[in-house]
Design goal:
Helix 2 crosses helix 3. The chain is of the alpha/beta class and about 140 residues long. Strand 1 and strand 2 form a beta hairpin. The chain contains 5 helices and 7 strands; from the N terminus they run βββαββαβααβα. The strands form 2 sheets. A 5-stranded mixed sheet has the order 3-2-1-6-7. It has a two-stranded antiparallel sheet with strand order 4-5. It has a single domain, classed as Nucleotidyltransferase, domain 5, CATH 3.30.420.60.
């Protein structure tokens, strides 16, 4: 019987539910949390830019390539995709539905390899992490 996994996530929380058969209830498989994504950017980075020495003997200032909160969101997206890919290798699911806040959905897509991507049957760009479990299945269909 076909087993579908539903990933409900934002930059701080991800819940992975499973459903076997169309009329089965959702079962929580895994919950992942990333509290760093909830922290203020000032708590994640130092209060001043780093310094580096240039080849000519002068000094420069290092400016981070991305904001600390964005960096943490990317790390969490990579963690989720790694978990999904490991589960895929174990044949834990046959079909994948991803519902995530629009920006975080993009980060998940950026981290996703082609093997996981091929199993995604539906993309929903909405944050359903605060939706009661009893209402999720109706919204995911």
């Amino acid at each position: 019987m076909k087993k579908t996994w539903f990933v409900i996530s934002n930059a701080a929380t991800a819940r992975i539910y499973s459903q076997t058969g169309q009329h089965d209830k959702l079962h929580l498989e895994k919950e992942l949390n990333h509290p760093e994504s909830r922290m203020k950017g000032s708590m994640l980075a130092s209060d001043r830019p780093g310094h580096n020495q240039t080849s000519g003997g002068g000094h420069g200032t290092y400016v981070e390539k991305s904001e600390p909160k964005e960096f943490e969101a990317e790390r969490f997206a990579a963690e989720i995709i790694h978990y999904l890919d490991s589960a895929r290798v174990k044949n834990s699911f046959d079909d994948l539905v991803i519902a995530a806040s629009p920006h975080f959905h993009g980060l998940l897509n950026k981290q996703m390899n082609k093997h996981v991507s091929n199993l995604v049957s539906k993309h929903i760009e909405i944050d359903l992490t605060q939706t009661p479990e009893s209402q999720l299945l109706e919204l995911l269909k």
